[in-house]
Design brief:
With 357 residues, this protein is α+β, with helices and mostly antiparallel strands. It folds into 2 domains: 3-229, Rossmann fold, CATH 3.40.50; 237-355, Nucleic acid-binding proteins (OB fold (Dihydrolipoamide Acetyltransferase, E2P)). The chain has helices at residues 41-49, 91-96, 108-121, 137-149, 167-184, 195-201, 219-224, 229-234, and strands spanning 3-12, 15-25, 30-34, 56-61, 64-65, 76-79, 155-159, 187-192, 204-209, 212-217, 238-249, 252-257, 260-265, 276-282, 286-287, 298-308, 312-318, 324-330, 341-346, 351-355. It has a 6-stranded mixed β-sheet, sandwiched between helices. A 5-stranded antiparallel β-sheet has the order 13-12-11-14-20. The chain has a 5-stranded antiparallel β-sheet with strand order 15-19-16-17-18, with no helix packed on it.
Length: 357
């Protein structure tokens, strides 16, 4: 199913939850809507599902307007944040529920066969006779996913389905959900505020703020080429430093900042001398200590924190003007103690020049 939103707006009283949002989601795409709490992502999902009507704009499924179509007639399946399983039904009963409603009531044998196939797909067939309160959080999540998929919808809608799981289980379920969605070939729209989920699972993402879409692109595009400082700061850790462009020579841009002159290899964009900008340098673009063969973009700061994460160490450095710079060091041979002076290098090819807005 192809899903299109055309200038969709939704207000709740004086609050504009969704502000003229336009999206185009392709058939079979795993599309993420990402943003902080209150940005409008769940409202958009509910508009797609038919639980919430837009005040203006159009929702199109495969080119057909479905604004007035009720939820049960949209051929969508939904996985809710709290799973919403029936406590009095078994696992098999929960999965079969959507196949017993008017208009989709299948004969008993066909219904049992379809439920069995779906339980096998989510690896829950041995738990068919258990009740939801006898399952772990991850198992309940699988049942909710199976219940949404057993009706064979054209589109799967997921509203922060992993937010109630522990960290290790979230990692496992990311793989499970993407594997299942891609194997079935279904269009899926996934809402989350977890940037790691979006980066690791999505085909494309929409980053939202205050009911508006800030950027749409692949996870790699959004991470490496954010359009503004909000996107750069929200998706992945980054260092944001204001500066003024002093010169441009083809793709070599020199920017004066409070911590010294930066040189940036800008592969795209038009920049003017004297222009105020914001530089975004991802933590992995900052090397501590600097490589011995580098002489530009080399600075020095006071180490305030050293955080150990197993496979890498995060350094936090204070600059004389008060700017904090974060750096990642993978497999360091020796961790630096706090309060030490530390030199660092910023990779000029891994810095984004953003508008100062």
């Amino acid at each position: 199913m192809n899903i299109t939103l055309e200038a969709v707006t939704k207000r709740f009283g004086t609050i504009t939850a969704v502000d003229t949002v336009s999206l185009a989601i392709g058939n079979g795409e795993l599309f993420f809507m990402v943003g902080p709490s209150g940005c409008g992502k769940t409202t958009i999902l509910r508009i797609m599902a038919g639980f919430c009507a837009p005040d203006s704009g159009q929702v199109l499924f495969d080119g057909t307007r479905i604004n007035e179509r009720p939820p049960h007639a949209r051929n969508t399946g939904m996985v809710f944040q709290n799973y919403a399983l029936w406590p009095h039904l078994t696992v098999a009963g929960n999965v079969a529920f959507g196949l017993t409603v008017p208009g989709r009531n299948l004969p008993g044998k066909e219904r049992r066969e379809r439920v069995q196939r779906m339980l096998q797909a989510v690896r829950m067939e041995e738990f068919a006779e258990r009740k939801p309160n006898q399952l772990s959080g991850g198992q309940q999540q699988r049942v909710a996913l199976a219940r949404a998929l057993v009706i064979e919808p054209a589109c799967l809608l997921l509203d922060e389905p992993l937010s109630n799981l522990d960290a290790q289980l979230r990692l496992e379920m990311r793989v499970e959900i993407r594997r299942l969605v891609k194997r079935i070939g279904i269009t899926a729209v996934y809402v989350t505020h977890d940037q790691e989920e979006a980066l690791s699972m999505a085909d494309r993402c929409a980053i939202l703020r205050n009911g508006c879409v800030e950027q749409i692109g692949t996870p790699q595009d959004i991470y490496q080429r954010p359009v503004n400082r909000f996107v750069a700061d929200f998706i992945g850790g980054t260092n944001l430093v204001r500066g003024v462009i002093r010169s441009t020579d083809q793709h070599d841009v020199r920017i004066e900042t409070p911590i010294g002159e930066w040189r940036v290899n800008a592969s795209s964009g038009t920049f003017q001398t004297g222009q105020s900008v914001v530089l975004s340098a991802r933590q992995e673009a900052v090397r501590v200590p600097p490589p011995p063969d580098q002489t530009t973009n080399v600075f020095s700061g006071t180490l305030t924190e050293t955080l150990f994460f197993g496979d890498h160490v995060e350094y936090r450095l204070a600059m004389p003007d008060g700017t904090e710079i974060k750096a990642l060091s993978y497999a360091p041979t020796r961790m630096k103690p706090p309060s030490a002076e530390a030199g660092f290098w910023i990779d000029p090819s891994n810095v984004a020049i953003l508008p100062d807005t």
